[in-house]
Amino acid sequence: MGIVSPGFRRRRRDEDSRLPPGQYLTEDFPVLSAGPTPNIPLDRWEFVIASEDGREYRWTWDELLELPAEEPTVDIHCVTKWSKLETTWRGVSLDVLMEDVETTADFALAHSYGGYTTNLPLEDLLDGKAWIVYEFEGSELAPQHGGPARLLVPHLYFWKSAKWVRGIQLQEFDELGFWESVGYHDYGDPWREQRYQGD
Ligand SMILES: Nc1nc2c(c(=O)[nH]1)N[C@H]1C(S)=C(S)[C@@H](COP(=O)(O)O)O[C@H]1N2
Ligand SMILES: [Mo]
């Protein structure tokens, strides 16, 4: 039968192998927000990394845009079971932002405008694994998806990718974020299906 081309079959197999356990593919981009979408004027926007000893490293919106940008194409996986393959973003690697930050902290707590928080080990933000992104598929990041800027940590469930990110607190201890403190997994590796505490 010539209905399904070999190329299509090959692509389907490739897609299946990129889907973590329990996930399904979606072409849409669902919006998942625990509260209202905050409105952040760009002239008042800032991003702050605070180290465990109280030092603060700040960037204005213009300063963020001046930093070298990358365009990661990554698969994203929401704990509500949708996955989206090959999403393209533009933003600044956390490696660039962390370059001059002096720290011996092991943990990070990301804070958002609007009050959302999420925790992760600092090493999961480094070595090309995380970005502060301000474009999605070639357009400025829509407010409902976290614009003006969000954290993107695609190797963990998408709740770790804090929308409307305003800063990262570095600390020596692991402090649970918003979803983590109500039973979601502390780490959230989609490949190990770490959805809830105890998984
Ligand atoms: N500030 C903030 N960031 C957030 C959330 C949120 O409610 N508030 N939801 C998280 C969850 S559970 C998911 S799945 C993704 C959803 O991002 P999207 O709405 O762009 O799909 O954002 C994450 N980041
Ligand atoms: Mo989610």
UniProtKB/TrEMBL annotation:
It holds the Pfam family Oxidored_molyb. InterPro entries: OxRdtase_Mopterin-bd_dom, OxRdtase_Mopterin-bd_sf. Residues 35-179 form the Oxidoreductase molybdopterin-binding domain. Residues 1-23 are annotated as: Disordered. Coiled coil: none annotated. This is Sulfite oxidase-like oxidoreductase.
